[in-house]
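Worked example 3 (structure in, sequence out).
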């Protein structure tokens, strides 16, 4: 039993967990102004193009501040918590950090980024042995053989990292999703008394709050960049897989049989957007799946007239609704619960477009009626 666990069992855990959160928060708040200043001085900024939703040059090195805040917290926590769990995560983040910085400054090929993600994910999977053990009967699939388990866990890591990267196209969207997901995982890990994982969640929450402050700023704006999307995406994937692993390893845990489905509900938006964008690009437009465009769900919401902050709020509400649906119906069989999550997710994320279509139709009919009344009144006047 380590020192921190002993202190937590004495009843001081909640107060003590404020320290990693506050350390990440303060570190990030102090780091971002310096990063923004250097980025402008060295012209390390994003220049707007036809795909951009901003009109001014903006630094893209926000991931540096997020990385340093999280890395400092995890490194210091490793002395008191589970170093075997936290140190491989820090090592993986260092790999992704250097890949991301190079991509933000010089552009890195997708193959090299993918290779780096695979190495980082495999390092954590093999050292910590945190992996998806079973499909829990989803689609009739049960326990996975060891190497299949490693391969599938690696696939989930890469999927979540790149799904998160794809939603980073709007002020506050990626940061808000990362914040909400980490808050929820932090709550669950704390309830499960997994303090090392709770610290991972709180460190990311503490780093993302200052990022969102500057990301929404009109004067000192900064973007997450590929560094940030890979670092945050990796941490979200790690938390997701750790949550699944812990519940599948414990037969009496609350989410033993449906942990993968709860993760699906938590990450429904980035996964839905990834599936949709790949379909649009590959099947409809016959393009490369990673070719940039403005066909993301958040871009479509902007086109129907919503503002940046409104899109973020709509997506947050829809995501929360999907999660609540999964919790309400968690006693269903896994395949029925899977169906509930998919249907509720599609309905919630389609709702803004149906509402907009309905409003548009009413306006069109009203304008048509007013034109008729105008013609009638004009002819009577003559």
């Amino acid at each position: 039993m380590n020192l921190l666990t002993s202190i937590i069992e004495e009843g001081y855990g909640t107060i003590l967990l404020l320290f990693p959160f506050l350390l990440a928060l303060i570190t990030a708040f102090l780091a971002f102004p310096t990063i923004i200043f250097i980025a402008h001085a060295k012209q390390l900024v994003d220049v707007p193009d036809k795909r951009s939703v901003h009109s001014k040059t903006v630094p893209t090195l926000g991931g540096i501040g997020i990385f340093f805040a999280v890395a400092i917290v995890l490194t210091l926590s490793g002395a008191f918590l589970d170093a075997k769990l936290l140190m491989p995560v820090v090592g993986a983040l260092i790999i992704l950090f250097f890949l991301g910085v190079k991509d933000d400054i010089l552009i890195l090929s997708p193959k090299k980024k993918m290779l780096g993600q695979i190495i980082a994910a495999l390092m954590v999977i093999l050292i910590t042995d945190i992996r998806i053990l079973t499909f829990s009967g989803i689609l009739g699939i049960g326990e996975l053989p060891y190497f299949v388990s490693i391969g599938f866990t690696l696939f989930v890591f890469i999927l979540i990292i790149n799904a998160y990267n794809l939603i980073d196209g709007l002020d506050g969207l990626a940061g808000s999703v990362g914040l909400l997901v980490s808050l929820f995982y932090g709550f669950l890990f704390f309830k499960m008394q997994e303090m090392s994982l709770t610290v991972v969640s709180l460190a990311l929450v503490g780093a993302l709050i200052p990022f969102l402050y500057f990301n929404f700023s009109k004067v000192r704006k900064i973007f997450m960049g590929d560094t940030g999307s890979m670092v945050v995406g990796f941490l979200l994937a790690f938390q997701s897989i750790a949550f699944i692993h812990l519940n599948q390893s414990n037969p009496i845990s609350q989410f033993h049989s449906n942990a993968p489905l709860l993760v699906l509900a938590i990450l429904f938006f980035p996964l839905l957007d990834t599936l949709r964008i790949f379909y649009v690009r590959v099947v409809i437009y016959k393009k490369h799946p990673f070719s940039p465009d403005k066909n993301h769900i958040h871009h479509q919401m902007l086109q129907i007239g919503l503002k940046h902050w409104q899109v973020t709020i709509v997506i947050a509400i829809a995501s929360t609704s999907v999660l609540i649906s999964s919790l309400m119906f968690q006693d269903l069989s896994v395949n029925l619960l899977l169906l509930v999550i998919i249907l509720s997710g599609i309905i919630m994320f389609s709702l803004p477009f149906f509402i907009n279509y309905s409003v548009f139709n009413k306006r069109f009919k009203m304008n048509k009626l007013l034109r008729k009344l105008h013609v009638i009144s004009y002819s009577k006047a003559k």
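Notes: DSSP finds 14 helices and two strands in the chain. Residues 334-381 form the longest helix (48 residues).
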